Amino acid sequence: MMAMMMMAPVRKSACSRCAPISSTCWLLLLMCISIVVAVSVSAENHCSELRYEHSLNTHHLQFTKEIPDREYGVLKQFKSLHCCGKGYRSIEWFKNNKPHPWSKDVSSFIVYPEAANQTIYSPRLEENDIGNYSCILRNETHAIKHEIELRLQDKLDNPMPTFRPKDLVVSVGESARFYCEAFVGNLYLPDATNEIVWSQMFDDHPHNVTDSMQVNVTREEGQIIGSYLSIPNIQTHHYGRYRCQIVSGNSAQKLNLSVLLSPVEVTAITDTQLSVLVYVMATLLLVLVILFAWICRTVQQRTTHKKDNRCSAQFIANNEHENV
């Protein structure tokens, strides 16, 4: 009886210790589920938002939005890579030319099927995840490929470009779209902010872009920021140089990415090409002079011959008249 009475508090004490542990486990489980759901929604939506306008009503094999050539990640943090496309029957992912799926010693990245395999992600980035990734989109007849270099970035002094805007040649009345993006990392100061602004440059001075729309975007909890500049109706005053300026609260320097909007392609001519062009033009001119001289001489000869014929005919006619 004494033994049973002594055991009761022990059991009660054990149960009282189990209760908080169980609650903590449930709380951690709910937090993990919330994080997974948030990551899933973000990964799923990336390729469905802000696609190229020309890709919305077409169905051929193509990339549907800008894809970075280089990505940065932080150890033990979430990281995703995207290959947004359409018109494909299959998407293949490779790391250093090794096809997915990968063993843990190659990469911890897994494919996200809810995004139609356009996205791969790692919940906690590891050192062996660093390398060169590529995606290949295929249909029955064609294939297109894109390569992404993934690097580690722990301490960030300045924004690191992940997508540089591309020069465009556009006719008046058509539309233009530019995109710039950079890795800015985590903000460690409570009052620090990131900023990204598009400007049109005149004599190295920034001005507001008229008749345009700028849309700023972020991904991976604000570690990567980007901006779209859309000009729906190009006019002559839109041509020129543009600047995407990215300012991070953690950095001392600004990142400036420049791009050119032109009505025609501007190509430089080499000295050799110029010499050949001058030689061809001189030869052409000489041929024209010779041709002109030949034509003039031929006309003159024909005119002289006609005069001689007229004179001969008149002389014969006069002689016949005198004989009569």
Description:
This protein has a 5-stranded mixed β-sheet, with no helix packed on it. Strand 16 and strand 17 form a beta hairpin. By secondary structure, it is α+β, with helices and mostly antiparallel strands. It is elongated.
DSSP helical segment count:
2
What share of residues are in beta strands? 25-35%
Strand order of the largest sheet: 2-10-9-5-6
- How far the N terminus sits from the C terminus, by CA atoms, comes to 179 Å
Q: What integer value in Å does the Rg equal?
A: 37 Å
Q: Would you list the SSEs in sequence order as H and E?
A: HEEEEEEEEEEEEEEEEEEEH
Mean pLDDT, to the nearest integer, reads: 84
Helical residue percent band: 25-40%
Q: Sheet with the most strands? A: 5 strands, mixed
- Computed structural class: alpha+beta
What overall form do the CA principal axes indicate?
elongated
Number of strands: 19
Unreliable residue stretches: 1-21, 25-41
